[in-house]
Amino acid sequence: MYITAKGGYVNLRRYIENTFIESVKLRSLLPCGSEILAAVSGGSDSVALLQLLNRFANYMNWELAVLHIDHRARPESREDAVFVKNLAERLSLHCSIEEISPHGSGSVEGYFSAERNRIYSEYSSGNSLVVTGHTASDRAETLIMRLLEGSGLRGLGGMDYLGRGPVRRPLLDFSRSELRDYLETIGQNWVEDPTNQEDSFLRNRIRHSIIPVLESISPGSTYAIARSSANLSQWRDVTAGIIDESLDKLLDGDTFKTDKYLNLPKAVRLGILWAVSGRPRGGKLEIEKTDRWILSKKEGFHILPGGTKITAEGGRISIRKHLRTAGKVENEKQ
Fold first, then answer.
1. Does residue 62 lie in a domain region?
2. Which helix (H) or strand (E) holds 303?
């Protein structure tokens, strides 16, 4: 028997499988008849995901296939690809393997994330969905990371069941340890990525040094933090609606009056600039700098993250989206 996060005794396998399919159906994450591409790294989370998807594929009439992305971050990564390919063959599933080109400069995690999303977009078409193995543990770790980075509501909301574009995350109700216990009960092994033990990544330091302390102080902290992330995600969606409505009221074609902008709350102003920028993942400091510039009522122009140019002249702000210059991008400092 297994003790759930709520303290009840249940059969582990039945609990995991029932919770999974109930969540999928309740949230309409993976409708009947969907083409589903399971993103499988070979780690415990994604292997559990594949087993659960395969468990209910006939019941939900899913057309299931597997995608493995080799990040080439370590010499033995090709062994992971072989493991996933063999697992897919054992389940009689088609498996595609993609490789990510070597990373240049900047954030390694950010680069890998962008490359994965690019590949997901290339593989998804029509009604096809890409399913990833993110868990409640990932959700809790992400919220702590965002707190340490000083993120606003958009960042604190973190990951949700419905990801960007075709991405779906049906395992957010489970912790990493629960899924490993599940795999052990069904006799399924997985690959251990040694880089998950390295403390060079902030997420790993949080996973190894912060989460265990929180759990020792207050058992169940992982789920509590994940619930907070879910609540913040809902409020993020509410504020996104407010920002869109405010932007519609503010704009007159591709311009707006500076005074009308200045009368808005700061959070709404920053949200409008973020929306005008094309909703980039980064660029928070530049957006805040642009807001201060508009408040100063100086004339000139600024280039927002993503290349959008805004020009201040005669008490109005005009917007020219996705401006890109050859060579170095200019930025107004008049």
1. yes
2. strand 300-303
